[in-house]
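#dry-run=false #mode=assembly
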Amino acid sequence: MKLAGKPVAGITLVTVLVAAVITWVLWPSAQGTHPREQSVTVLDGPRDDQQVTLDATFFPPAGGGRAPTVLLAHGFGGSKESVREAAVRLAGEGYAVLTWSARGFGRSTGQIALNSPDYEVKDVRQLLDWLARRPEVSLDAAGDPKVGVAGGSYGGAIALMAAAYDNRIDAIVPQITWHDLADALFPEAGGRGPLNGVFKRMWAGLFFSRGGTSPAPGPLRGATPTGEAPPASAQEVRCGRFLPELCDVYQRIAETGRATPEAIETLRRSSPVSVPGRIKVPTLLLQGTRDSLFPLGQADANARAVAATGAPVAVAWFDGGHDGGDGEADWIHERTTAWFARYLKGDAGQATVPFTVTRDGGRDPGTRRPVQLHATAPAYPGLYGAATTQVALTGPAQPVANPPGGSPSSISSVPGFGGLGGSPGVSLSTEMAGQSAHFDSAPLTAPLQVTGSSTVRVRVRAEGTGGTGGTGGKVSEEGVTLFAKLYDAGPGGQAPILPDGLVAPVRVALSPDGTGEATVALPAVDHRFDAGHRLRVAFTTTDLGYSTPAAPAVYQVELAAPTLTVPVDAALRTPQNGPSWWTWALPAAAVVAAAVLLLTGRRRRRTDHDPSLADVPLRIDGLTKAYRNGERAVDDLSFTVERGQVLGLLGPNGAGKTTTMRMMMGLIHPDAGEIRIFGHRISPGAAVLSRLGSFVEGPGFLPHLTGRANLELYWKATGRPEHDAHFAEALEIAGLGAALDRAVRTYSQGMRQRLAIAQAMLGLPDLLVLDEPANGLDPPQIREMREVLIAYAARGRTVIVSSHLLAEVEQTCSHVVVMRRGRLVTAGPVRDLLGEHTSGGSGGGSGSRLEDVFLDLIGEKA
Amino acid sequence: MSEILTRTGSPVEEVPEGPGRGEGQAAGYLPGRTLPLSVEFARQLRRRRTLVMFGLLLALPWILVAAFQLGAGSGQPSGVPRLSDLATEGGLNFAAFALSVSASFLLAVAVALFCGDTVASEASWSSLRYLLAAPVPRDRLLRQKLVVALTYSAAAVVCLPAMALLAGTLVFGWHDVRVPGTGETVAALDVLPRFGVVVGYVLVSQFVVAALAFLLSVGTDSPLGAVGGAVGLVIVSGILQAVDALGSLREFLPTFWSTAWLDALAPQPDYGGMVKGVAVSVTYSVVLVALAFRRFRRKDVVS
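#status=ok
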């Protein structure tokens, strides 16, 4: 693999990425839909005599033609504009989409009747009539459009209610909505019904105030101000755009904090609980885990009601709701379109997961934002779990006080400001001193994932019933209001966490002797209690969001049974929980790839020794090396050097001398032919190179080290014993004196040259190869060098010198090899060469110089 | 000079080599003994760039300390505490901050320098060919150089947080760690071993830079080119990381997980991101290093 290929691959990758990004950015606008604003006039009311104009927007399907339709309903306090973005997205997926402002909201006329069958439901029926006449809408039958309804909160309830009253609706996706509005506003976790429920004061107030003329923005499904502010009448100030009857009901219950049968009747008429067995269409219930207004129990009741009719139901608990959370807009869109694809388009390939729970997946390491994981199960187990496990709780009977006026109150979550505690792990919950009783489990030995509503049985005794008769009598009549919470108490000093900020209010009825018991369903959560943590059940007398008795009182709270029944669902699995497959597969593949790269790149390393040449310092045979352009630097070169010779390697520039020397050193791979030193074939790093001393194409030293350190470290790098180096002799040849202990970067050219020759002679190699050794030396030094080389060879060692100083070669060398354009021109003893040419008669005289011979050989012979 | 030669003459008589030595090597030569690590350490240690880089890494914590002392009180931490707001909480907090500001770039440059320069500088000094002709076998040369370069890199990655820990502890005291975001505290002794994991992870996550620098170093005679190329990778990868449209493809960018070590300092440490980061880093670096070896084996050394 060549590195040169990489930039091309890189540019290709970048180009593809850029193209993909541009396409992705431009794509939606290429097929944008053109929504049409539409006023639809409908008749509703108990006697169908009230005319209301609904402000609607119709989004034709992106693909054109007829398509299934989705009605997108907005949340309380919003208008059709709140769901515009979602509508455009759905239209882009090939649905016709109709959004409208419900009566009493946005520009629609009429008054808010809270999804009443007489008002809002009739409006939707007439919207379906209108849709059935549109040419873009595909029909099941004449007048019966193929239609689904989706919406959150208020819009979710209309989806359920409309499906109950109009069998033309084919599928619904209600989100974060109610099953029983009475139960949602008057919850009672002991199962005694809304008549004994504890008034969800703060949420109810926010809910009803958002029906006013200028709705406040808030988490109720993206409310946006309409911008218009018509002058308000006294009635409007009192009730906003609510139907006066509803307004009266609210004002009564808000005043007393207790539900009346009449109020419950009114609220239930607006709730799916009033239409049992009538919602028979595939229903996907998306409920937020962070929702103290419509907690998971509301979706659970809806799921049971729809499932009882035999219609398909799926439930998802996502990270959102009226108290904030992530909202998971993309995921909800994905699930919604999958549901409609399955049940409107009939795409059976769309998987519909019966139960999904969003769990915390830590943080994205790139963006540092929280990541949601979606655990799925093949069946929806309900609030009380596919299975239960018992956790022992301990704690003595504890007195708790209800403060006079219910203040100060403990805080679990702050309705309408849920976003404040939005990040998981931050708990807003605050307990007031003296108001709560705690019962703890032992530290868990293994993690416990609670999915649903745990239950515990509690016993309450009113204190001081004998003291002030009046209070006591009132307490036994009212019952004892407590707020049950399930805390995650970590080890050490960490503040306990109240999962999702949820509480379960309970009103324990007291028998005449002043005691009472109740089985309390704690808030439904999906929460993992880590090993070492404790489960803590707390009962508190006050909560900011609820209306609590004003009379001061003290109760004894204890557990009637010391166990907490905890629902678990082992079938809930998070896909790809833990390391992805590639975390081990990629490195393993890389190791394999690396092994392949290394093993295939290995040159055959065999000992190639010719014993007959063991005494021949150098034999070159058929050596060939071509440049990349194909021009041959060395072309079929063959010659032999015998022991004791001082061989001059001669040739003009570009003759291939240096290339030949580099091949001798194993730096360059020959294309053909071979070099043998003492019979050993040369390959990169061949051991026989340890008998070769070389100086080729200039010195190579570490400039920051001294000359001495350079030589010492070089010798150490050879790994050979220090006494074999003969440093003293080498340093004497270098002749650097005191300069030896200066950094090499301060040296002159000649000093480096001598140091490099000294380095080549370290260890007194049997074969010494010197490339232009006389460069940069002055005449006396050249003379010394000549003597050194002759003496070196005289003892049976061999020296190869390349030089362009022909006079030097003539005086130093015993033999010469002349090269030209990579080819051997001639080889032999200097004397022979000179003699030959003398007899050849170029100059006629006896004093023929090598220079003449050389020029003759390389120039004239051609 | 001729006297020398008469002196050197005597051993010459004994030297002539006969057959019988396996590879025909000179006396005392063993390929496995060439270029010992200690020699390579010594060759690199006295280089100005080594000393300057370590000087910078050791001085940076003190510069940061001085900066915090100068600016003390002017910053108004509001809302969610960030790592920089908490830097003066104690030695460990300060070390975490110092690491977070230097891990993404400064340490990458240091690692690229040590690994990118190592072979290319030898080539530019021409000393490479003498090492190869010594002969140091090519694989061995690369291996020794890689080990030494990685050791210097590791020293660089370790010395900065270590010095920051020392400086922070001396100036701000030894306190429990306050975690950015929630402001919770984690006991110092709990964090100390995790801090070791963090430093180890930062080192492993720099392997990609090291391996790419090393590959470039083998391929070029220009040390600056090798260092710059590896740093360029960090920059390009960082830019691509900001392109959200790439989705989960970004997980395979070499720098994507470079801040995953922050998860180890949370009250509930999460090692998932770090595991992925290690996987990505090891994957790239193993292949790049293998390419470097393959390339160097086949290369004609002409520098």
